[in-house]
Amino acid sequence: MTKARLVASVAAALVAMNAVGPAAAATATCFQSADIEAEQAIRYQTEVMVISDTCSSDSYRDFTVHTRTAIIAYQNQLIDRFRRAGARSPRASLDSFLTEMANERALATGRERSDLVCQRSVALLAEAKTMSAEQFRHHIASLAAESGKGYRRCAG
């Protein structure tokens, strides 16, 4: 990631932080199982996006083409979550959440030498490049099961 892109990302993060009010309120509430999967899906998508950009790979483009319907479903699940949490504008809360997550990932990746990031990420990029929507859903279900204990679950 170039310095100019990193600076732009940081600037976008600062703007997003000022607009995160509803998103921050929503993240303080409980998670349904589908919410956990949706958040894990967006985290995975963000990781692929940032790494693909850092490594000048077309993996992210191919990934989003193959998994478009699943990504949209996960985004809609997060919009529902923000709505349940009382966000005035659930779509704006999703947009802020996506921006914040992308900027956090870009900043973390930007702290490392890009050649090392790319070497370490060969398998991730290869996996994402050919992943089908069904494989994506199964992968995300596994990630959600592994990290589900870190979430405050809704009763019921």
Q: State the end-to-end CA separation.
A: 44 Å
String of helices and strands:
HHHHHHHH
Please indicate the percent range of residues in DSSP E strands (runs of 2 or more). under 5%
| Oligomer description | single chain
**Count of extended strands:** 0
Helix content: over 70%
User: What's the Cα radius of gyration?
Assistant: 16 Å
* Helix/strand/pairing category: mainly alpha
Q: How many helices in DSSP terms?
A: 8
Unreliable spans are 1-27
What does this structure look like?
There is one protein chain. This protein has helices at residues 3-18, 21-27, 33-54, 59-84, 90-110, 114-120, 122-130, 133-147. By secondary structure, it is mainly α. It has one domain. The radius of gyration is 16 Å and the shape is globular. Mean pLDDT is 85; it is low at 1-27.
